[in-house]
UniProtKB/TrEMBL annotation:
Pfam families reported in the protein's UniProt record: AHSA1 (PF08327)
Family assignment from sequence similarity: Belongs to the AHA1 family.
Activator of Hsp90 ATPase homologue 1/2-like C-terminal domain segment(s): 26-105
Superkingdom to which the source organism belongs: Bacteria
Lineage, broadest ranks: Bacteria, Bacillati, Bacillota, Bacilli, Bacillales
Name assigned to this protein: Activator of Hsp90 ATPase homologue 1/2-like C-terminal domain-containing protein
Length: 158
């Protein structure tokens, strides 16, 4: 897994490249369908699996947030607005391996950048494990605080 953090004048950016031993269509199904995404991010579902539709984030207690799907190209690419920022998933198949490239951009006005980056870092690892083994990564097996602290230091967010 290759992870890069950077900033520009207005935003913080995270890029994660991970090799997954699977097929592009299988990984895309995990990322781009309600059936797939619920296996690693159970609070999410697609209103419709297409650009211009929405991703629905179930906050519990009948409260929801919506993310506009900006790009939806089966087996290749999904992008959507995530709160004040944007996330992007791209797939490239090389033999029996798929490279998943995840990009996230958040404005500095977003108050919990490091927490959000940490959450997506965990979720990308979970997608890899799910695609390769059939089981997502356990939240209990991940040190969220240490990763968040590392990201805050790397991006100089303190």
């Amino acid at each position: 897994m290759n992870v890069n953090y950077r900033t520009d004048e207005t935003h913080a950016h995270q890029t994660i490249d991970v090799s997954i031993h699977s097929h592009k269509s299988h990984v895309f199904k995990l990322l781009g369908t309600t059936e797939g995404i619920k296996q690693w991010f159970p609070e999410l579902s697609f209103e419709e699996e297409r650009a211009g539709s929405q991703l629905i984030f179930d906050l519990g207690n009948n409260e929801y947030e919506y993310a506009k799907i900006t790009d939806y190209h089966p087996n290749d690419h999904i992008g959507y607005d995530w709160d004040q920022g944007h996330v992007d998933f791209s797939l490239e198949e090389k033999g029996d391996t798929v490279t998943l490239t995840f990009k996230e951009s958040l404005p500095f006005t977003f108050e919990t950048i490091a927490n959000d980056f940490t959450g997506w870092y965990f979720q990308i690892q979970s997608v890899k494990k799910l695609a390769e083994t059939g089981q997502p990564l356990s939240k209990d097996a991940f040190d969220f605080k240490s990763k968040t602290d590392e990201i805050e230091q790397t991006l100089n967010l303190n």
